[in-house]
Specification:
Strand content: 5-15%
Strand order of the largest sheet: 1-2-3
Distance between the termini: 36 Å
Helix content: over 70%
CATH superfamily of the largest domain: Cation efflux protein transmembrane domain
Shape: elongated
CATH topology of the largest domain: Alpha-lytic protease prodomain-like
Order of helices and strands: HHHHHHHEEHEH
Structural class: mainly alpha
């Protein structure tokens, strides 16, 4: 299995620090916006930002652990720790959604006027701009480095942008119309959006922990790489693919002529493996070689059973 380059580790650590610093800054700015407007929507938005800070701390610890090299107890490395981080982040997002619902319901039962404070609203817009820039950067780096924890954190930060915009709409409408119930109603809509994002993050993490197959495009690239050597083997079957954090694994059975010398079989496997690594850089490949007569016998036994 290929190790993660040192510059990749450094990039991931820098991204985690960026997430933490921006999370703290955004929380402080949004809290200031709430203090100036007394909007429950802005308060719910600030509460959701506390989850960003907790998630950034979790991301920092997880990336430090997942980047450890393989050892005797973990021969496949520690990359799956990122899925645990994503799962916990999804749960934290869900907790934030529940807190927002609680706050919004209380404000619906006990309405409170929203103050028209341009500075408070401007602070929220400023916080959203920070989140937009940081979220796009985190998600892009996560996709490029195949880091599910970083992708999840980027998606979480971006969801904060859309929820903040929704909150601002509610605050402005409440100020213009004088209908104070609009603000907490928007808070409930934000909570539903937050819960939806949390479910998506949890769903992706569970898929990684359960070794879901690679995306269809990647599987087709794997098949094309193997089939590019079609003249050298008889057939291949039982293709399996999975991803563990930044590590990708492919294994399959390759049927070769029964009397083919072992060295030639080895050379064919090396050639196929090189093609797979060109198609999916860093992939770990396991090829089970089967002689033709044994493969046909196994296929016949499977049909009889």
């Amino acid at each position: 299995m290929t190790s993660v380059p040192a510059n990749t580790d450094q990039t991931l650590r820098q991204a985690a620090r960026l997430s933490l610093v921006s999370g703290l800054l955004v929380f402080a700015v949004k809290l200031g916006g709430y203090a100036l407007t007394l909007s429950v929507g802005l308060l719910s938005d600030a509460l959701e930002s506390t989850v960003n800070v907790a998630a950034a701390l979790l991301l920092t610890l997880t990336l430090r652990f997942s980047n450890r090299p393989a050892d005797a107890d973990h021969p496949y490395g520690h990359a799956k720790a990122e899925y645990l981080s994503s799962f916990l982040e999804g749960l934290l997002i869900g907790v934030a959604g529940v807190l927002i619902i609680q706050t919004s319901v209380m404000r619906l039962l006990h309405p409170h006027p929203v103050e028209a404070n341009a500075i408070g609203l401007g602070l929220t817009v400023f916080a959203s701009v920070i989140n937009l820039v940081v979220g796009l950067r985190l998600r892009a780096q996560g996709l490029r480095l195949h880091s599910p924890a970083l992708v999840a954190d980027g998606q979480h930060v971006l969801s904060d942008v859309w929820s903040s915009m929704l909150v601002l709409v509610g605050v402005v409408l409440a100020i213009i119309t004088g209908l104070n119930w609009i603000d907490p109603l928007i808070g409930l809509l934000v909570a539903l959006l937050v819960l939806r994002v949390g479910w998506g993050v949890v769903r992706g993490a569970v898929g990684g922990l359960l070794d879901e197959s690679l995306p269809e495009d990647d599987v087709r690239r794997v098949q094309a790489a193997i089939e590019s050597h079609r003249a050298q083997y008889l057939e291949f079957h039982d293709l399996r693919t999975r991803r563990a954090g930044r590590d990708t694994f492919v294994d399959f059975h390759l049927v070769l002529p029964s009397l083919l010398p072992l060295r030639e079989a080895h050379n064919i496997c090396d050639a196929v493996e090189d093609s797979l690594k060109s198609a999916l850089p860093g992939v770990s490949v396991t090829i089970h070689v089967e002689p033709e007569d044994l493969a046909h016998r196994e296929m016949a036994d499977l049909r009889l059973s």
